[in-house]
Each structure stands twice: as structure tokens, then as C-alpha cells.
Known about the structure:
This protein is of the alpha+beta class. It has one domain: Alpha-Beta Complex (Peptide Deformylase). It has 3 helices and 8 strands, in the order αβββββββαβα. The strands form 2 sheets. A 5-stranded antiparallel sheet has the order 1-2-3-6-7, sandwiched between helices. Strands 4-5-8 form a 3-stranded antiparallel sheet.
Amino acid sequence: MSDNGQRPKNNLIILQRGEPVLAQVANPVTDINSEQIKQLITDLKITVAEAKGVGIAAPQVGESLRLFLMCSAPSERYPDAPLLPISVIINPEIRSTSEQQALGWEGCLSVKGKRALVARYTSIDVSYLDEAGTKHNKTLTNFLARIFQHELDHLDGITFIERLNNENDAIDEQQWRETYLT
Ligand SMILES: [Zn+2]
């Protein structure tokens, strides 16, 4: 604990699917420079690193705000992920998409122990604000486009399970590991 009125850095609890906040449409961030948002970004960075995720959205820690982090790096679960610095994505929009979609394996910190093949657009034009409030317009492709679409879904109350034709198309992580990791 600190006695200067600031919260200590936190590894936040990641909520699991079924929590109402994960099914809500999140609110736009109105004051990027507020202490609340700065603290949330700090806490999310710690939390996603501890969880070894490639992304995390504010609703996953109970904050119904349009903010997520992308932190792509190769890992056991995502061996082909590009290594990139962590990105803070605020009030994101997808401005246009490719016609083409591709299937790829996804998991989610809020759907523990499950993986599924999910169809996502292979290329998307996006806009968002970073943590300094600077606006970015970018084209994202492949894995980064996939992370962006997965995390943006969280801001609209959707987990990857809702993207499946059948909930049973999700398989146990252990089964996935044995089948697809050599
Ligand atoms: Zn997720």
C-alpha cells in the first residue's frame, strides 16, 4: 500500500465469460489524461504481461470502456505472432475491411482453457487514439488484424465463442496442445 493517495500497481483480476460486463457495449473514453485512465493502462500492461496474453480489453478487468492493449509477441500459444511494442488502443474503429476472411486459432483470457478456429478479416483499416491522445490511421493485416478484431469485439460485448457457429466448436486447450503443437 502507498500512503500518497495513489493505488499501488496492480495485477488485476481477469473476469470470465458469463460476467455481465463482458456482454455489454463499452463506453467511449472521454478523458484520456485522467488519472483513472492512466492507472488503468498501467494496470492492464502488468496484467496482460503476467497472463502472457497478446491483448486485453478494459471490460475484461471490469471497466466498461473502449480501450484495449495489443501486445503481440511469439509464445507457445501464438508461435507466429510478430514481436511488437505494446500498443494502447483507445476508442477504436474499423473503417473498412478486406472481403477475405481467414480462419485462425484463438483463445481468450476470459474463456480459460478453450481454443477455437475463428474467421476474421485478413486486412482492416482502423483508426484509434493512443495513450497520448494522438490519432492513428493504420492498415493491419493477418495476426494483428485478428487481435484487433478480437479485442474490439470485447468492447461490443462479444467473446470469440459468440463468433462460432456452434459453441462446441471450441476445444480444450490441452487437446489443442496435443494435436497442434509439436
Ligand atoms: Zn479475449
